[in-house]
Design goal:
The chain has 6 helices and 28 strands. With about 400 residues, it is an alpha+beta fold. The strands form 8 sheets. A 6-stranded mixed beta sheet has the order 7-4-6-5-9-8, with no helix packed on it. Strands 16-13-17-21-20-18 form a 6-stranded mixed beta sheet, sandwiched between helices.
């Protein structure tokens, strides 16, 4: 049995990002950029007004000023501002020559036809200098950036309509068990609906990879072998729910060995999720996940999600935050690292939610995070800091 750290090392060791492709900008959200982006121009490209108002010389703001022209955004000023003069200007318009200040419209008085006076108040410059945000040639986005809406705006500002991004991993998802039926099937005594596969498909989508459902696999060695063979040929990751423990019908490890697929680990010192299998067939990573829904949910978060990130060219990282415990807490068994569903109260403290074990996926509908308790830690006092991993929304 290996530790969580050792398991992550086995999973991520030697993994390289997938091939790249050009993607339409409007479909590039959540993809991972595969090239550095340098600015093709200064930003802003000219001195521009930050407010609606009047462009003038600071030395003249105590005088009545003659309005010599109106400059709308997108127009080029036709006149330079001289002594006693100003130009009416709109937000985003080019600052005319001679001006070093924009008086806000609400800080001026109308003094007659095309004449204004400063009424007092804010006298900041109220304009942005050419290149004060970005200089031409500056590195503005690095390869490995997980593209969010603000990054899409940057790409658009550079005229990039087909950014180079890493391909999305294809994740094959299957469940084993003769007791399973699909969600739309009425159950008979002894049957349960296949919720794990749909949970894993949703988590895969949330991780911005592509899920491919391979259905329910019967508890037969040959059927398990065939399903794995088919998935290996066209997948980057395979997630097999169930069939990984030590029972007579837990056939996944046997099926892997029969195909000479090396199992890198079979047990991890965590709770829930101890009987987790990880193997690799060529470049395809294979996870055998416990059949209990909480186990498969957590194992995806701590094992599969970092792998997806690395395959997409993003540096995997575990987002955990230290948050104070809101109550005294203790547990009976503390021989393994344990993950528990929690919520964060109005005071920003951790509150455990009602949880009955690894079959109780309903508890995670009330949770906003997953608390990790180190091996050997039995009690946590109120106010003590604990690590919490947010549940993605």
């Amino acid at each position: 049995m290996i530790t969580l750290t050792e398991a992550l090392h086995e999973i991520l060791n030697g993994v390289v990002p997938l091939e790249t492709e050009r993607e339409q900008l409007e479909r590039a959200l959540f993809r991972v950029l595969a090239e550095d982006i340098y600015s093709d121009s200064d930003m802003p490209p000219f001195d521009k007004a930050a407010v609606d108002g009047f462009a003038c010389r600071r030395s003249d703001i105590g005088d009545t000023l003659q309005v010599i022209e109106t400059i709308a955004a997108g127009q080029v000023p036709q006149k330079s501002v001289g002594q006693g003069e100003c130009s009416r200007i709109m937000t985003g318009a080019i600052l005319p020559k001679g001006a070093d200040l924009v008086l806000m419209l609400e800080h001026t008085l109308d003094c007659g036809p095309e004449k204004i006076r400063f009424s007092g108040g804010d006298s900041h410059t109220n304009f942005a200098l050419k290149g004060e945000e970005v200089k031409k040639g500056d590195l503005i986005l690095s390869a490995g950036t997980h593209l969010l809406p603000q990054h899409i705006a940057i790409l658009a500002s550079q005229g990039i309509t087909l950014p180079l991004v890493s391909k999305k991993p294809r994740v094959a998802i299957m469940s084993t068990g003769d007791e399973l039926v699909e969600p739309g099937v009425a159950t008979r005594l002894g049957q349960i609906r296949n919720s794990n596969a749909y949970q894993l498909m949703a988590q895969t989508q949330q991780a911005h990879a592509t899920p491919v459902y391979h259905g329910i696999i019967a508890d037969h060695l040959e059927a398990t072998v065939v399903a794995i063979q088919e998935a290996v040929a066209k997948s980057d990751i395979i997630l097999i729910s169930g069939g990984v423990s030590t029972g007579d019908f837990d056939l996944v490890p046997q099926a892997l060995r029969s195909q000479n697929i090396e199992i890198l680990f079979h047990k991890v010192a965590i709770k829930p999720g101890k009987p987790t299998v990880f193997a690799r067939a060529g470049k395809c990573s294979i996870f055998g996940l416990p059949g209990n829904p909480v186990s498969s949910f957590i194992n995806f978060e701590i094992f599969v999600k970092p792998l997806i990130s690395k395959l997409m060219g993003n540096l995997p990282h575990q987002q955990e935050f230290l948050i104070p415990m809101g109550v005294d807490f203790s547990r009976k068994k503390y021989d393994r690292l344990e993950f528990l569903p929690v919520s964060i109260d109005a005071q920003g403290a951790v509150q455990p939610v009602v949880y009955h074990g690894s079959a109780h996926i309903h508890a995670f509908c009330q949770a906003t995070g997953i608390m990790s308790i180190p091996q050997g830690k039995q009690t946590i006092s109120k106010g003590e800091l604990v690590y919490v991993r947010p549940i993605s929304s």
